[in-house]
Amino acid sequence: MKISDIKVYKVKPRWIFVKVLTDEGIAGWGEMISGTKTETVVAGANEMGKKLIGRNPFEIERLWQEMHRSFFRGGPINGTIISGLEMALWDIKGKALNLPVYELLGGAARDRIRVYSWIGGDRPSDVAEQAQERVDKGFTAIKMNATSELHYIDSYNKVQAVVDRVASIRDQVGDQLEIGIDFHGRVHRPMAKVLAHALEPYHPMFLEEVVLPENWESFDDIAHEVSVPLATGERLYTRWDFKNLFRQGAVDIVQPDVALCGGILETRKIAAMAEAFDMGVAPHAPYGPVSLAATLQVDACTPNVFIQEQSLGIHYNQGFDLLDFVKNKEIFQYKDSYVQLPKGPGLGIDMDEDKIKEVAQEGLVWSNPAWKNYDGTIAEW
């Protein structure tokens, strides 16, 4: 079997799908991350994909090493391109062998996968009502953004507003829900300590990206301020980017993104390193259906994954949602906050290519939000 062609589709609301074809008629799907450099990712995917034509799609490790180990390596552009192509190769191999990908990575380590649901939006509001809706749907865990813009030193009123929102959830549903609170790298070190300490009495499930990952040394400071588990990792690529976190020992949960960090096997390797340091894994997956399907394959065979993000109904899914491009919609059926292990071969997802082609004709203009502080300085989104 040889790779014969690569097709890349940009589809609303913010997804890039890649299809890798073979000369034996078996094709695999992958997904790449759009954002501020969507066209760059698409151009890079076509460029890198051409180098795979004529190669054996089963040699996933060999091809990954060749794609990754260029003179200039790493970074979000190369990271997401390699990730998308790699998950498509696993899809091909699983289909050819008629096995789910996780069966090729050691087999199932669990019976089902726990998932959480997003509430609140970018600038969180109405969280108590939304939390109640998730409880009514059977979810036992949610995640929300903590705050909108915060300056290096900002008003305590903003901190109190965050506390009030989280308190409103506890008043509404008590301890029925575990709450992950995402600082989203919006909070600088001085305010991160204040905010983390103020939220501790509400027993968050974890605090995510309390500072930007490049300020990893601050994780240690904040870990000494609070007993709440700290999580990070969605902006890191490959196991080498995670080394400082493992050495430091301040972060409790790593969150590699299968569509960014290097793909399925690289996510599994990162999780195995985390297991050796007694750390949990909660993979990042707020994007489209292919990346989530790929992530579920990792979850199935990874014992230290304790919960999975999923993006059905997330605030970014305007116009289209996960199931709109999927034929076997049961793959993302959640019951009592769990999803079953994928059953089909490969990634287990049957993509509706006709629908993808139709929507791709409309074009994709997506850019991550750009925020400013009250004084006009750039704020982190």
UniProtKB/TrEMBL annotation:
Q: Gene3D superfamilies, alphabetically?
A: Enolase-like C-terminal domain, Enolase-like, N-terminal domain
Give the species: Lacticaseibacillus paracasei subsp. paracasei
Give one Pfam hit by family name.
MR_MLE_C
Annotated PANTHER family: D-GALACTONATE DEHYDRATASE, D-GALACTONATE DEHYDRATASE-RELATED
Start and end residues of each Mandelate racemase/muconate lactonizing enzyme C-terminal domain? 124-229
The GO biological-process annotations, alphabetized, read as: D-galactonate catabolic process
Name assigned to this protein: Gluconate dehydratase
Q: Which UniProt keywords apply?
A: Lyase, Magnesium, Metal-binding
